[in-house]
């Protein structure tokens, strides 16, 4: 399972290596993160959990 990954950098949220297939690129801080785990869409932009406003839910 953990053979080859397309390394895209370390996740800004959890600090683990990010594979290309599961990569998101945060528009706020410009860092890579694990899509769906450490960030997702927010206001039509990729947003990591670090930059995700927690109090805003619309
Ligand atoms: Zn992560
Ligand atoms: Zn971010």
Give an overview of the whole structure.
The structure is a single chain. The chain has 58 residues and is mainly beta. The chain has one domain (7-47). Helices cover 0% and strands 36% of the residues. It is built from no helices and six strands. The strands form three sheets. A two-stranded antiparallel ribbon has the order 1-2. The protein has a two-stranded antiparallel ribbon with strand order 3-4. Strands 5-6 form a two-stranded antiparallel sheet. The radius of gyration is 12 Å and the shape is elongated. The termini are far apart. It binds zinc ion (2 copies). One zinc ion is lined by residues 11, 13-14, 16, 33-34, 37-38.
Major sheet: 2 strands, antiparallel
Query: What is the arithmetic mean of pLDDT?
Result: 90
The fraction of residues assigned to DSSP E strands is 35-45%
| Envelope shape | elongated
**Helix and strand element order:** EEEEEE
Biggest sheet: strand arrangement: 1-2
Q: Termini distance? A: 37 Å
Q: Number of helical segments?
A: 0
Roughly how much helix do the residues carry, as a percent range? under 10%
Describe the secondary structure blueprint for this structure:
Elements: E1 7-10, E2 17-19, E3 23-25, E4 32-34, E5 39-42, E6 45-48
Antiparallel strand pairs: 1-2, 3-4, 5-6
Bound molecules: zinc ion (2 copies).
One zinc ion binds at residues 12, 26, 28-29, 31, 48, 50-51.
Write a concise keyword list for the protein shown above.
58 residues, single chain, mainly beta, binds zinc ion, two-stranded antiparallel ribbon
């Amino acid at each position: 399972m953990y053979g080859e990954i397309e390394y895209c950098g370390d996740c800004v949220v959890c600090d683990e290596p990010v594979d290309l297939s599961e990569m998101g690129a945060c528009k706020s801080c410009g860092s890579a993160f694990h899509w769906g785990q450490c960030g997702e869409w927010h206001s039509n932009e990729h947003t990591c959990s670090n930059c995700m406003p927690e109090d805003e839910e619309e």
